Amino acid sequence: MSRIVAGTAGGSPLVSVPGDGTRPTTDRVKEALFSRLESMNMLAGTRVLDLYAGSGSLGIESASRGAKSVELIEFNDKAAAVCQRNAELVNKVLKSKIVTVQRSKVESFLARVADAGVDQWDLVFMDPPYPLTEEELSLVLELLGPRLSPYAVVVVERSARTPEPTWPDSMNLLAAKKYGETRLWFAEPAGD
Fold this sequence. Notes:
With 192 residues, this protein is α/β, with parallel strands linked by helices. 32% of the residues lie in helices and 27% in strands. The chain has helices spanning 27-39, 57-64, 77-94, 106-116, 134-144; strands spanning 47-51, 69-74, 99-103, 121-126, 148-159, 171-179, 182-189. Helix 5 (134-144) links the parallel strand 4 and strand 5. The chain is globular.
């Protein structure tokens, strides 16, 4: 069973997406990821975007640890419903509507927010399904680049067997770390 690791809602259980269509981030990877983000001062008061959210566990963990706002974006019906349930759980514990859910394809969502001139994000999680091609991932990163705040961090989680993402000109690789079968890439906006 997945859970919120730390913060105000720490220890709270999360609903998992039924079936094998998603692969949740393991507690070991989540703990290491959030330890790194806390050391970078990337949680308290941040605007978080969780793309391909699955159960929403990464965005919800951010909310528990002090994020100002969290948007979970998930297209799959079952996964979006689980995101909604988990968002309601953490919002109730936090006594505030910090986490919102949108059922949408990631590319469509990013195109809509670009057209609407929506605020920028400080922290973005991307844990796309394994079948997502490197070309599709590159397109999403390209669409995301202009929506990042100047000191943002983008975390891409993929299989350790996949190549490093092709970063758009608007982003630079900050770090990479392998945890068993999982690899995390950290990127930041390119300096002007």
